[in-house]
Known about the structure:
- The protein is of the alpha/beta class and 364 residues long.
- Helices cover 46% and strands 11% of the residues.
- The protein folds into two domains: 5-250, TIM Barrel (Alpha-Beta Barrel), CATH 3.20.20.70; 269-363, no CATH class.
- The model has no long low-confidence stretch (mean pLDDT 93).
Amino acid sequence: xxxxxxxxxxxxxxxLPLLFLAPMAGYTHAPMRRLCRQHGAALxxxxxxNDLGLLHASDKTWHLLETFEDEGPVVAHxxxxxxxxxxxxxxxxxxxxxxxxxxxxAGCPVRKIxxxxxxxxxxxxxxRIHAILAAxxxxxxxxxxxKTRLGPCPDRVAIFEILDAAEQAGxxxxxxxxxxxxxxxxGPVHLDLLAEVKQRARLPIIGNGGVTSPRDAWHMLQETRxxxxxxxxxxxxxxxxxxxxxxxxxxxxxxxxxxxxGARPRRxxxxxxxxxxxxxxAEVELIERIRERxxxxxxxxxxxxxxxxxxxxxxxxxxxxxxxxxxxxxxxHELQTLDAIRAAVASCLEREAAYRxxxxxxxx
Length: 364
């Protein structure tokens, strides 16, 4: 009998809609995952991690799977194209005892990934997807899931063959990005096809794609009846989107439309500052943990430089829509230390505070 997502991943509150943090290369490392978990994400995913890198014991690859003990259930997100190497990598990941599940990527459209037959390239060969998942299923006892897309392009819908392959191979759930490979990360999300997949499926379906607001999540749930909604880029620098969405869905009514695509609710500036500080402290914690685990040399200046490099992509997202954010974004390459980042944040928040103080009440 098929288990629900709550049963698979031992998730609480079965009456609440499930919101997951999607895997995103360069973003969903332990600091971001923990913050999103604290703000309502029921399940989070690691960055894309290569099977061969894990098998060759590449430190840089294993760094992508570093976790914090208090970040909640995490799914290891793997990519590759060979059933043997992926099953062996999955077994090694399971042996760490740190993950709630293992996920196969069959949807990434990036050329660097597809050129090696991985990611979205697998969509062209559902039989290979079946072979990979079946091999992984034999190798691990953890919940096994697949993340994929509708097909290569609108005139080649492959998802129903892929769904059958996943079910026959023993997968526990399927996360479906409701776009085609040819669309990349833009264009319409095909909720009608997502709904048809959900109707046909014998395993839980996780809906993904184009969810940037509570209203988007509401529409996806209402129109497709998926078992969970996966949020991706809208969560970068915005961990609050999970609690905002949960609160809106709990009301039962359609949430109001945003002023424009990607618009966010206005946050208290202290809340933004605290989230930034918490995130940066977690970045330092992760850097130190990796150095300790892999016996790397310790250097305070190098920690600052590493943090500045890794945190830049998150920084301007936290400042999204604030006065002075464009100034910070244009000078990201100049922010080489933690002190420089804090100074840039302080300047931006001061400009925003001054603007709010002077703006008419209707704009505050």
